[in-house]
Amino acid sequence: MLLAAVAIPSIAMPSIAHAQETVAPPTVYVPAQPAPAPAPVQVQRPQIVAPEPQTVNGSRTPVAPGVLEQAREEDRQRAAERRAAARETARAQAAQSARTASVSPARTASVTPARADAAPAPQPAPQTQSVPAASVPPATEPAPVAAPPVAQAPAAPIAPPVQTGGNGTLWLILAGLGGLAALVAGLALLRRRRDDDAIWQDAEAEAGPARAPQAAAPAVTDHDIVFVPERAETDPVTHRTPAREDPVAAAPMFFARPMADERPDAQGHASLETPHLTAPDPEDIDAVLGGAAPRGDRPQLELAMRPMRAGTNRDGAIVEFELTVVNAGGVPADDVRIGAFMLSGKPGQQSEIERMLIHPPADAVVDAERIEPGDGTRLDAAATLPRDDLHVTGDGDHEGFVPVLIADARYRLPDGSEGRTAAAFSVGRVNGGEALVPFELRDDTALFDDIEARLESVPAKV
Asked: Is the pTM of this model over 0.70?
């Protein structure tokens, strides 16, 4: 209404109309005023300088209403184009990497307020004044252009890129933490498997030795039943079969005791009573040497047996004897050990003699220490044998036995090895014939001195 009122006087006055036609070019300043605002890359607010309106003949010319409306429409179109361009730019920036997306919204947000601040500059609000001779400067007209910046608030579409960038970074962090957790779980599982394998191997190692004796248990059990039937009841060691988890500990039970039972019964009960060493008679030494001088580079022991009395007593058989041991070698004999024991003569006795020499009774050995070359020593003792171990021959009226004395001398050779001489002598009564008469088995004591010893065999001479 006010603009229309201003336009009426201009039609009535030709001079003013002529001035208006002359001043028509200033209308181009209205749409050109917001030109500095479209710069989207400017962070700082552009300073809008309002152009000074030109005057003709010192007077201000008002702007036509149609021109002003056209300028406003053009301004709105340009604002819409800028908003569309901003949306396209935001969509392009959202497609970039997380870091680019996080930077682009900040720049866009910084430009948006500049547009809002710059847009109100061309609003000609003061033009509503009724002063006809004065035109309102374009910088003071914020009212007509105020609506487009308010509707331009498309800050919301730009916000998702910022949120998307943050979520991307968060997902990267969560993915890294998940990978680290999976790695830790894998290492823990691998370590647990190794521990299980080690425990399983330890269990197999512990169970291995325990199974070995079980495989050998039948042999040991049968052996115990065959060789030690009596000791299984009296000897507590034989009842330790469940504790034989260590094969090394069970070995002595397997070897030592059966070997003792394999010996003949006479050997297990034969003994040597009142043994003592004494110097022999020179005649006995000469008889052993045969008049020859000691010779050789090693010791060599020779034996001579002289029975003194023999017979029976209440316990069994007994033979009293003198055993002369002479060194016929040219080197002293050291670590000399002299043994004597008795068994009852019977067929096949040679194998029993050899077994007894391998395992002589411990109480039938005497240490003689050292014998010089050409010298000797004599063992005086009595060998006994229980009545139950005697091998009796003859009929019911004339039953008797023939004792066999076994002499054994062992010594150490210069090279450290062992030398030995062993001989078996049969002892019996002499009845004027060539054969020895067996001793009669009686219940009371009966010892005879008309006896003789004959060399039966030389089972060992080393």
From this structure: no
